[in-house]
Structure formats: C-alpha cells, structure tokens
C-alpha cells in the first residue's frame, strides 16, 4: 500500500468515525494534514467546470480544485478550442458525485493555474477513482506520470479500457494532454 493510499484510507476512516459520532465538520475548514505538506479543504461544491475541475466555497471564498492524478476529456472552450468526445459526459458524471455536496478534500499543492490539486473523497472511494473506473477520465500519465499520485488508477483504467467503458468505446481515444497539444496548440483536430 503506497503512502498516498494509506493516507487516503486513514482520512476516509476518520471522516467515517466523525460522521458516526455525529461530530460533523464545520463548513469552511482548512487544515494541515499531519506535517505531510498535504492539507484538507472542507466546503460546498458550487460548480463542476469539467470532468476534472470543480469549485468549492470555503469561508465565503471560492477555491478552484483540480482533481489529482486524472485528466478528463476536454470540454469546449470557444471555437478555437473544441471539446473532445466524452468531455461533457465526464463533466456530468463528476457532477452526479459531487454537485451541491459539502465535502472534505485531501489536497497536495497548487498547480500553475493556482488551482488546489486534490483527491475528492465520496463514500469509501474518491471521485477521481470513480471517473477512471467508469471510463470518464485517464490516469494522468502526462510527462511520464509525474502528475500521477494514485497508482491504483493505472489498473482501473486498464479494466475500463478492456470493458470499453465510457471514452474507451471510442476506437482511437485521444488523451487530453495530446488533444491540447495537437488540436488546441497546433490546430490539427
């Protein structure tokens, strides 16, 4: 079991115990996770922008969240940046899991766009894992896997691909990092 998986399992266990005991969490909490450089954000999901980006409200402040370890098909961003097949389906799938809910996210860092990069626990798993498991996102292996914290996603992706779930029903599914480069930057869609 990796350190990341152990941390996630412990965090989910603590959240379950707190819920059972009825202690609850105050909406709007930002806490450091035991000196690991990780931190938690507790807030209400107010927007699902696409299949790997949400917004949560914490202490009256909006935080943009990038789901860790995954990359979902791109949604359209104007005529110069067309969306990918399954981009909107991925966004809707994520919305089904998180929209309007108050969640405690396990975060690691900020990305170059100033979004917090987080795992998004739902039930006994994460939205990150569910999206990959159902063929609505890739395990993010861009840059040789430097963005992949949760290595269990590789096996989940392999199983979804074998079962032709979601985007894997497409015979030539293009990874979002390749889509952004080829279609958006080089205009070769």
Mean pLDDT figure: 85
Task: Assign the CATH architecture.
Answer: Beta Barrel
- List low-confidence stretches: 11-27
Strand residue percentage? 25-35%
Q: Looking across the biggest beta sheet, what order are the strands in?
A: 2-3-4-7-6
Derived structural class:
alpha+beta
Number of helices: 6
Shape: globular
Question: Care to describe what's here?
Answer:
This protein is an alpha+beta fold and 189 residues long. The chain has one domain: OB fold (Dihydrolipoamide Acetyltransferase, E2P). Helices cover 33% and strands 26% of the residues. The chain has helices spanning 3-21, 87-98, 127-133, 142-145, 152-162, 176-185, and strands at 30-32, 39-50, 53-58, 61-67, 70-71, 102-110, 116-119, 121-122, 125-126, 138-139. The longest helix has 19 residues, at 3-21. The termini are far apart.
Task: Give a short summary of the structure.
This protein is α+β, with helices and mostly antiparallel strands and 189 residues long. 33% of the residues lie in helices and 26% in strands.
């Amino acid at each position: 079991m990796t350190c990341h998986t152990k941390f996630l399992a412990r965090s989910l266990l603590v959240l379950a115990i707190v819920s059972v005991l009825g202690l609850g969490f105050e909406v709007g909490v930002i806490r450091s996770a035991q000196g690991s450089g990780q931190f938690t954000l507790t807030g209400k999901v107010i927007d699902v922008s696409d299949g790997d980006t949400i917004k949560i409200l914490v202490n009256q402040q909006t935080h943009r969240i990038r789901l860790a370890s995954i990359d979902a098909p791109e949604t359209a961003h104007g005529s110069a940046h067309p969306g990918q097949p399954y981009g909107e389906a991925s966004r809707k799938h994520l919305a089904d899991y998180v929209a309007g809910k108050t969640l405690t996210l396990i975060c690691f860092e900020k990305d170059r766009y100033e979004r917090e990069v987080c795992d998004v626990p739902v039930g006994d798993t994460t939205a990150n894992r569910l999206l990959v498991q159902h063929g609505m996102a890739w395990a993010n292996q861009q840059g040789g896997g430097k963005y992949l914290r949760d290595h269990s996603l590789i096996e989940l992706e392999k199983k979804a691909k074998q079962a032709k779930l979601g985007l894997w029903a497409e015979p030539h599914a293009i990874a979002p990092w390749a889509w952004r480069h080829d279609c958006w930057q080089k205009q070769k869609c």
